[in-house]
Amino acid sequence: MQRILKYVKDNKKIIITVVLIVVLIFALYFINKNSEKPVAATYTQEKSATEAKLTAILKNIEGVGDVDVMINERNDKITGVIIVCEGANSIMTRNNILNAVSTALDIDKNIIAIYSMN
Question: Which of 8, 22, 24, 55 has its CA 20 to 30 A from that of 75?
Answer without folding.
Answer: 55
